[in-house]
Amino acid sequence: MASAAKIAMATVVAFIVGGVVLVTAVLPAEYGIDPLGTGKALGLTELANSTVKSAPVTAGGDTPAVTIVPAADGVNEDGAPMVKHTFISQPSRYKVDSRVIVLAPGEGMEIKYHMPKGGGLIYSWTATETIGYELHGEPDKNPPNTRIGYYESYDLDRKVGKNQSHGVFIAPSTGIHGWFWENTSKKEVTLNLVSSGYYDWIFQNRHDMETILQPTDPK
Amino acid sequence: MSNQSVSKSRIAGLTAGVVLVIVLALVAPQFASAHNVSQRDASFVESNKGSAIPAFMYLGAKHMVTGYDHLLFLVGVIFFLYRLKDVIQYVSLFTIGHSLTLLAGVFGNIHANSHIVDAIIGFSVVYKAFDNMDGFKRFLGFQPNTKIAVLIFGLFHGFGLATKLQEFALSKDGLIANIVSFNVGVEIGQCLALTAVLIGLSVWRTRPGFLHHAFMTNTLLMVGGVILVGYQVTGYWVGQ
User: Fold this and answer.
1) Which of the residues A9, A17, A21, A30 would you substitute to probe the B interface, choosing the one with the greatest number of B C-beta atoms within 10 Å?
2) Helix B4-35 vs helix B210-238: crossing angle, to nearest 10
3) Do B227 and A18 touch (CB under 8 A)?
4) Model ipTM?
């Protein structure tokens, strides 16, 4: 039988080593808690923030500019200044869609709207719990030299998540644009999505099944 | 103690120890996701209507084989059990314990906080490692009943299993058959993992210096337990 001193020493060492591994590696990798900066140095904090898929994240600046530029030269016939980049002409009447989606804990799904490049979308979604999401799109035609499954990300928070999001979106390419949601909470979540925009059909991916849906108010 | 073979095997032991800790630290994140029933399995569990005995058995076995917390505890329990009869006795007590709370937890709809339960499971590893070092005999002057300890910790491990299954909305159809299948799967997975551990341990026991490394290994087991406790307690506080 080992001596009391040896056992005590081993126990203390075990707690110190365990604590060091915990603080330098496990906490940064699992929760992004990085008090000593070791997680950043080893690239472990990436694990806490990142996700399964990796995709080129399109910066906001790459989308068609909707920056409001007051005109320096132009005025209308009444002498009022012409303000540019505030108006994008649309090809058809807009459609309206609203849906209530119930997600079990851990369940994920996608709703994406097919829109032409420059097509606008106004949306709101609210959820009964905080859930992870990613606003992203897949162009009908992939850019050259990109692999199957290529997509572009516009806005995301898959780790902490949000319980609502409201926005105006202009499609940077002709294709399907919308959300991946994942119920990261422990409870069943009801998600309320309402949108209006210049889309013609809706893509749904749920339980590994891809379906085409029609807008709830297509007129 | 200064001959070459001892110092050589001591280095081997140390190396194995360091590798174990590094693997634990680096693989833990990947394992952690494998530890919970994965996303794909989850949608299966939810979309499932009626009984699906083989599928739930598979999920139970998979959970046990990839559930490093249960495995660490079992390694601690059988570490000094040389006779098959003893192994069977202790493992049966563990099985009775975790089956009771797995079934009671899911059927009785008892929702324990998974972080707290998993922290207690981590603590069970620390406890068993300290026990194997003869810590209790040395500091308390007596040996706490090891069989009762295995049974009690088995109860907590069962609550841990229950919380994993409860994370999903289970269909009411075939619920009993499915949960029992999951439980049977857990036992199959446990048998598979235990066989591997037992083979490894019995080979190791025939080598010189086992007892010296045994102390070292239990210290490492304790390190693993400490990491598990810290990981779960932090998870409880940050609410993830």
Assistant:
1) A21
2) 30
3) yes
4) 0.70
Q: Which of A:89-148 have CB within 8 Å of B?
A: 104-108
Only one residue has tokens 């309402």, namely: A194
Tell if the pTM clears 0.90, that is, is over it: no
Number of H helices, E strands in chain B: 10, 0
**Calpha distance A106→A87 (Å, rounded):** 41
pLDDT of chain B, 240 residues: tens digit per residue: 344 444 444 544 444 444 444 444 444 433 333 333 444 455 555 555 566 778 788 888 888 888 888 889 999 999 988 888 898 899 999 999 999 999 898 888 888 888 899 999 999 999 999 999 999 999 988 889 999 999 999 999 999 888 877 765 466 667 788 888 889 988 999 888 888 888 888 888 888 888 878 899 999 999 999 999 999 999 888 865
Distance (Å, rounded) from C-alpha B240 to C-alpha B234?
Answer: 9
Token reading at B100: 């009771």
